[in-house]
Design goal:
By secondary structure, the protein is mainly α. It is built from 13 helices and no strands.
Length: 265
């Protein structure tokens, strides 16, 4: 890895990270401020009025009333997947395909840094940026909970929730990064890098809407991700190992493909 290139990439992309951190922080603090342990029955009643299939598709089939489960269901069930997915799509494309497409990658290849080292650095930045994002969100969540509802948040469960959510989003990041390395044109990189994660998300939602469609969830990368069950204490070690394996395979594949392919520079 090239530390100089890492710093250069950080300089070019840190604003994007700050924007998404700001948006997610706003949603987290807003959702937390809406939590009222004395009025959760009304909220549960409202959700129960939804059709069962819609509740399951949106991740509200397991209704909870304590703070950690409330955040897992209302915030981590969809928002902490959807918004970081947009971040991953934008960043993954910017790190390679966009630079190749506009010719700026030629600058990097003109330096004495080997091609493999360049692409490893770009990939490491992509993963580290998500690590920083979720570490910061975890900190904000803990501090906000302690300020608003002292002692209500199960910090250990909330930490496990953030780790698994981070790994899920790292898989999405590596999907977009893989296609950014595979294609030289932004339109193709964005088309596949965004289309496949969105397809997986839709498959998971459809699979959760009816028992007969569960196979759709099983083939989705989000099928292993159940934030409510996670904070309830169910083991997610197997799912986490699967996500780590997918991340490693996609990262290695991206490096091998980019190192071998011809660039139109």
């Amino acid at each position: 890895m090239s530390l100089t290139l890492f710093k250069h990439t950080l300089k070019r992309n840190w604003i994007l990270l700050v924007i998404f951190f700001g948006v997610l922080t706003m949603y987290m603090t807003t959702m937390m401020s809406m939590y009222n342990p004395e009025d959760m029955a009304g909220l549960v009643g409202m959700i129960e009025a939804f059709p069962e299939a819609l509740r399951a598709a949106m991740g509200f089939d397991a209704l909870v009333t304590e703070l950690t489960g409330y955040l897992a269901s209302w915030l981590y069930g969809m928002l902490m997947i959807g918004f970081p997915m947009v971040y991953s799509i934008i960043l993954g494309n910017r790190l390679v395909a966009k630079m190749v497409d506009n010719g700026s990658f030629a600058y990097l290849l003109s330096t004495p840094v080997p091609r493999v080292k360049i692409i490893v650095t770009q990939g490491v930045y992509a993963l580290v940026s998500l690590l920083v994002l979720f570490a910061a969100l975890f900190t904000v969540g803990v501090l906000s909970a302690e300020a608003m509802f002292p002692g209500e948040l199960d910090i250990n469960a909330f930490f496990r929730l953030n780790v698994t959510t981070m790994l899920v989003n790292m898989v999405v990041m590596m999907i977009t990064f893989f296609f950014s390395c595979l294609f030289n044109e932004t339109r193709l990189s964005l088309g596949f890098g965004s289309g496949i994660p969105i397809m997986f998300l839709l498959l998971n939602m459809l699979g959760g809407s009816a028992p007969d469609l569960k196979i759709l969830s099983d083939i989705s990368i989000f099928g292993f991700y159940d934030p409510v069950n996670l904070v309830a204490g169910n083991s997610v070690l197997g799912a986490n190992l699967v996500y780590v394996g997918i991340i490693a395979v996609l990262f290695a594949g991206a490096i091998l493909i980019f190192n071998k392919k011809r660039l139109p520079l």
